[in-house]
């Protein structure tokens, strides 16, 4: 059974000025433990698609299935990472990490222990009583990921999750988050407009067309580098090849 | 109002043995600060002395303008009669009740308007009109409806501060990053959780700011209220002194009012530092 199945999703936004078709007939599936990236020109409905998968938005037509369960609202299976870390300034790192559990009323001893282990594993335990502004951008992003992982989601949705970081931090955080996701053995869908980022992280890339977004192509990413991390595989000879192909498909005109 | 955090910087720099250039810079900064403060004090003293001398020399009529020595005498006299702190207390109490109630009630109403798009749309034109209406015009109405007492005065302060608070806090609510709200929703949070986990804590600085504005507005409300209805308080002393031509009493009350208002404002600023610390530290 696939972790995520998207069937014929279409989405239209209504406003007084008219109707905007954001997505038309999107269909794809994601296997358990797979890392899939969705790229597309800006405004093609990438983020809308993630919101639909997460159950925050209901589509005009079509259905989403998570491990065989139909999506009707937000699901505990899903962990959502937004563009910025959105750690709350008025909460300590520990309190921030506990946010999701508080909302789900799932603050148990077990969950707290899981949070402690995650913080220790990813080097934030000493900072648990600090406030977010005392942490670097990379550490904040890690704290945000732990806030998501603590709720034990099977599927991670990353919505431009790195684009608020500066380039160097971003490369480092890519490596960081990628290794955490692989280590925790989670399924992930990354939405990005950064072609290199998506090639470096994903097992498969879904290219969307301009609005209204349709699946234009799906690339199976096979890079010849041993010990794959996002940074090392940027050196792979096929990298440039994929980049050229996707760039052409995005059909960017300035 | 005045920043005094930097006071200890020179001491620290000396302890750390900081370069001569920096010491010179800090000395200049300090000197500049001292000269500003000195000039401020000098102006005050000069004004008071000039006022006293001109009144003594009958260049100005102390019967109309009063004079510093008479003001001191009036304060002492009020104190001996045992009514000085009574009047100050009543006015301060009414003001504190006014701005506390104004802020709490205003925030509560803002929450309702934030919760329901429908109610906020319906309320919009009423809020606009109420906001532009000079609320002091309603004074006589309150007097008739509620009666000549502290209740009328507090309603007067509420009338002045409530609408401003609602608009200010509501704007704060609407200005919150939608993505922060989305974050709570991705965890399955409902509207009440969005309110308690994000909207209220994120708006805390805005609410404290509204409180600060309300302190000033409450003084206006209380004094106007006392003009209209009261039998006690600084506003009453001012109106009474004016009616019986005791300008000494009027000037004394105005000066006490000024001092009390400044102290209360400083108190709220201090409170803000205490409460918003966790918030502000992290911007």
Automatic annotation (TrEMBL), chain A:
Domain ABC transporter as annotated: residue spans: 4-235
CDD domains: ABC_NrtD_SsuB_transporters (cd03293)
UniProt xrefs under Pfam families: ABC_tran
GO-annotated molecular function: ATP binding; ATP hydrolysis activity
Gene3D superfamilies in UniProt: P-loop containing nucleotide triphosphate hydrolases
Keywords: ATP-binding, Hydrolase, Nucleotide-binding, Transport
EC code: 3.6.3.-
Lineage: superkingdom: Bacteria
InterPro entries assigned to the protein according to its UniProt record, in alphabetical order: AAA+_ATPase, ABC_transporter-like_ATP-bd, ABC_transporter-like_CS, ABC_transporter_ATP-bind, P-loop_NTPase
SUPFAM superfamilies (alphabetical): P-loop containing nucleoside triphosphate hydrolases
Residues in the signal sequence: none
Protein known as: Aliphatic sulfonates import ATP-binding protein SsuB
GN (gene name): ssuB_3
UniProtKB/TrEMBL annotation, chain B:
Protein name stated in the entry: Putative aliphatic sulfonates transport permease protein SsuC
InterPro entries tied to this protein: MetI-like (IPR000515), MetI-like_sf (IPR035906)
Keyword field contains Coiled coil: no
Main location per the UniProt record: membrane
Top-level division of the source organism's lineage: Bacteria
Family assignment from sequence similarity: Belongs to the binding-protein-dependent transport system permease family.
CC terms in the record's Gene Ontology section: plasma membrane
Gene label: ssuC_3
Annotated GO biological process: transmembrane transport
All copies of domain ABC transmembrane type-1, residue ranges: 84-276
Record-linked PROSITE patterns: ABC_TM1 (PS50928)
UniProt subcellular location: Cell membrane
Transmembrane segments: 34-54, 84-114, 126-147, 153-174, 217-237, 249-271
Membrane topology, as annotated: Multi-pass membrane protein
Organism of this sequence: Desulfosporosinus acididurans
Keywords noted in UniProt: Cell membrane, Membrane, Transmembrane, Transmembrane helix, Transport
């Amino acid at each position: 059974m696939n972790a995520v199945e998207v069937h014929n999703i279409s989405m239209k936004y209504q406003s007084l000025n008219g109707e905007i078709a954001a997505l038309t007939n999107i269909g794809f599936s994601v296997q358990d433990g797979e890392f899939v990236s969705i790229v597309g020109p800006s405004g093609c409905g990438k983020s809308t698609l993630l919101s639909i998968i997460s159950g925050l938005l209901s589509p005009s037509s079509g259905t989403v299935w998570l491990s065989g369960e139909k999506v009707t609202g937000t699901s505990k299976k899903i962990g959502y990472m937004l563009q910025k870390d959105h750690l709350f300034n008025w909460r300590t790192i520990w309190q921030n990490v506990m946010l999701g559990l508080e909302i789900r009323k799932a603050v148990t001893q077990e969950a707290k222990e899981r949070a402690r282990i995650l913080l220790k594993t990813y080097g934030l335990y000493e900072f648990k009583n600090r406030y977010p502004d005392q942490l670097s951008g990379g550490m904040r992003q890690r704290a945000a990921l732990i806030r998501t992982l603590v709720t034990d989601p099977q599927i991670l949705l990353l919505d431009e999750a790195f684009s608020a970081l500066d380039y160097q931090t971003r490369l480092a955080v890519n490596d960081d988050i990628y290794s955490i996701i692989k280590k925790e053995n989670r399924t992930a869908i990354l939405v990005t407009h950064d072609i290199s980022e998506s090639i470096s992280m994903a097992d498969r890339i879904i290219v969307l067309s301009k609005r209204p977004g349709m699946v234009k192509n799906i690339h199976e990413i096979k890079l010849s580098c041993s010990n794959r991390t996002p940074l090392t595989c940027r050196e792979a000879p096929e990298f440039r090849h994929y980049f050229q192909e996707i760039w052409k498909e995005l059909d960017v005109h300035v | 109002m005045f920043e005094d955090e930097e006071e200890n910087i020179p001491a620290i720099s000396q302890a750390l043995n900081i370069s001569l250039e920096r010491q010179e810079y800090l000395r200049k900064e300090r000197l500049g600060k001292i000269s500003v403060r000195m000039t401020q004090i000098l102006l005050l003293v000069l004004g008071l002395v000039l006022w006293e001398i001109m009144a003594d020399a009958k260049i100005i009529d102390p019967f109309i303008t009063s004079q510093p020595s008479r003001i001191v005498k009036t304060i002492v006299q009020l104190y001996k009669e045992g009514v000085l702190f009574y009047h100050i207390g009543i006015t301060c109490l009414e003001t504190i009740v006014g701005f506390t109630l104004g802020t709490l009630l205003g925030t509560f109403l803002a929450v309702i308007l934030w919760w329901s798009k429908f109610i906020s749309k319906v309320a919009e034109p009423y809020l606009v009109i109420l906001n532009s209406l000079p609320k002091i015009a309603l004074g006589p109405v309150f007097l008739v409806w509620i009666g000549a007492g502290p209740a009328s005065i507090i309603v007067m302060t509420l009338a002045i501060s409530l609408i401003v608070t609602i608009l200010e806090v509501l704007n704060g609510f609407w200005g919150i990053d939608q993505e922060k709200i989305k974050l709570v929703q991705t965890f399955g949070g409902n509207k009440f959780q969005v309110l308690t986990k994000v909207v209220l804590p994120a708006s805390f600085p805005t609410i404290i700011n509204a409180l600060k504005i309300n302190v000033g507005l409450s003084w206006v409300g209380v004094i106007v209220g006392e003009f209209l209805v009261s039998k006690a308080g600084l506003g009453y002393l001012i109106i009474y002194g004016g009616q019986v031509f005791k300008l000494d009493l009027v000037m004394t009350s105005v000066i006490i009012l000024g001092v009390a208002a400044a102290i209360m404002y400083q108190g709220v600023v201090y409170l803000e530092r205490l409460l918003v610390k966790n918030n502000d530290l992290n911007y």
